[in-house]
Amino acid sequence: MILTVVILLVVLLALGLLFVPIQIFIDTDTGKYYAGLGGLAKASFESDEKELLRVRLKVLFYEHCFYPLTKPSKPTKSKKTKPKRRIKFRQMVRLLKSFEVKRFALDMDTGDYVVNAKMYPIFVFLNQYVASFHINFENHNRLVVDIRNRPYRILKTFINH
Questions:
Q1: pLDDT at 33 (0 to 100)
Q2: In degrees, to the nearest 5, what angle opens at C-alpha 45 toward C-alphas 20 and 110?
Q3: Residue 57 backbone dihedrals phi, psi, to 5 degrees
Q4: Domain residue spans in the chain?
């Protein structure tokens, strides 16, 4: 009886993890860059005084910061090489199509008035039909991207085809 309850809980937990949203968020105006797994885990990319990039990793109640651009102090041991598994181009396209772009906003200034004026009609067209595109003449650049997916949709791209 207890074994079936434990197995049932493990299966329900695994099924629940398949439907947890994966979010990738980039905002160049506020400096927020992170990838998250629906409240369970979050990796934030931040600037730091000591290094160029610091990654703050939060998993449930555990928080850890590390610097990915520094070399490890321990010498790495040689590992056995495994044959590389290539991902087909069609599979990669299906994987990219499984992601949803919830928000995309681009506010751009090239610094050249003539180029800005030439890009203005293109940005008006894109703003009307694709996403939020704006051209400005105030030397202000901004990009906001919010991309989401779920693990079951990623698995579905590899299993179905």
A1: 94
A2: 110
A3: -105, 120
A4: 21-71, 88-161
pLDDT of residue 76: 65
Count of Cβ atoms closer than 10 Å to residue 56 Cβ: 15
Position 51 scores a pLDDT of 81
Q: What is the pLDDT of residue 75?
A: 66
Under a CB-based contact definition with an 8 Å cutoff, are residues 41 and 24 in contact?
Answer: no
Q: How many CB atoms lie within 10 A of CB 135?
A: 20
Q: Alpha helices, DSSP H only, in the chain?
A: 2-18, 89-97, 113-129, 151-160
Task: Using the structure block, give the residue that is written with the tokens 């099924």.
Answer: 15
Nearest to 106 by CA among 23, 45, 29: 29
3-state helix, strand, coil in the chain (%, to 5): 35, 30, 35
pLDDT given at position 22: 94
**Distance between CA atoms of 70 and 50, rounded to whole angstroms?**
11
Task: Tell me 141's DSSP state.
Answer: -
Positions in the chain whose pLDDT score sits under 70: 75-76, 161
- 101 Cβ contact list (under 8 Å, min separation 6): 131, 145, 146, 147
